[in-house]
Amino acid sequence: MLLWDRPNCGASDVCFEGASESELHARTLTGLIRALELGPTALAAGSAGSRVSLIAAARDPAAISHLVLWWISGGPIGLLSLAYYYCCESAIAASLGGMAAVAELPGWAEQIERNPANRERLLAQDTAQFIRTMERWAMVYVPSPDSPVPGMSPADFQALQMPVLIHRSGTSDLSHTRATSEWVHRLIPHAELREPPWPDDEWNTRLMRNMEDGSGLFAGWPALAEDILRFTGSATAR
């Protein structure tokens, strides 16, 4: 099993190369798989991880044996919220106080705490170029009438010939809409669409608890383990 921190997350180094941050993450993931000589690898991921897994599998399908996806980010509220969270806040901070102000933002400060060298990496960024990158990355999240997933074209979905399991999103979830999960399923006709092992309001419940007491948004994910192991152990490539 490979557990990893995406660039700009956790203890990983910060990096601002690539057409989008998700593209950077996907390229890093398949690079890790190949560098570690893992062979065709099953990807199981939710929320941002589902987007990164789809892009990784579309760009380097030979590296991926299976896809298991849930909480696929999508819908106008969900995608525009991501643009603000990942890009707009940092760009505004840079415009007001340069890269020093960016380094003080809670998200970046937490990453600097885990990887102190990231402070110098951030401060070394040219402020104007950083803002342009954030603007470019934010544009990727603009909802498209052609594809449910930022960074994925309809043609990209055709490259996904490996077994795919999609857990349907809840009707009340505005961050990972049910329509998004069903649209992805239509674009991958051989994929299996399954109800998740939690209530329809799982995301909203976890979000409210997180705001109240800081509990984890993804605390229910271990309930997927049996589904993941069964699917990746039995399904075969087409």
Helices, strands, pairings?
Elements: H1 21-35, E1 41-47, H2 48-59, E2 64-72, H3 76-104, H4 106-114, H5 117-123, H6 127-139, H7 154-158, E3 164-167, H8 178-187, E4 192-194, H9 202-213, H10 225-234
Parallel strand pairs: 1-2, 2-3, 3-4
List keywords for this structure.
single chain; 238 residues; alpha/beta; Rossmann fold; 10 helices; globular
General description of the model:
- The chain has 238 residues and is α/β, with parallel strands linked by helices.
- The protein has two domains: 148 residues, Alpha/Beta hydrolase fold, catalytic domain (Rossmann fold), CATH 3.40.50.1820; 65 residues, no CATH class.
- Helix content is 51%, strand content 10%.
- The protein has a four-stranded parallel beta sheet with strand order 1-2-3-4, sandwiched between helices.
- α2 links the parallel β1 and β2.
- α1 packs across α2 and α3 packs antiparallel against α6.
- The longest helix has 29 residues.
- The mean pLDDT is 96.
Q: What is the CATH architecture assignment of the largest domain? A: 3-Layer(aba) Sandwich
CATH superfamily label of the largest domain? Alpha/Beta hydrolase fold, catalytic domain
Uncertain spans: none
The biggest sheet amounts to:
4 strands, parallel
Helix content: 40-55%
How much strand content do the residues show?
Answer: 5-15%
Average per-residue pLDDT, rounded, comes to: 96
Number of helices: 10
The helix/strand series, from N terminus to C terminus, equals HEHEHHHHHEHEHH
Question: What is the domain tally?
Answer: 2
Q: What's the CATH class of the largest domain, please? A: Alpha Beta
User: Cα-atom Rg, whole angstroms?
Assistant: 18 Å
Shape: globular
Query: What class, by secondary structure content?
Result: alpha/beta
**How many β-strands, per DSSP?**
4
Strand order of the largest sheet: 1-2-3-4
Measured between the Cα atoms of the first and last residue, the distance is: 23 Å
Quote the CATH topology of the largest domain.
Rossmann fold
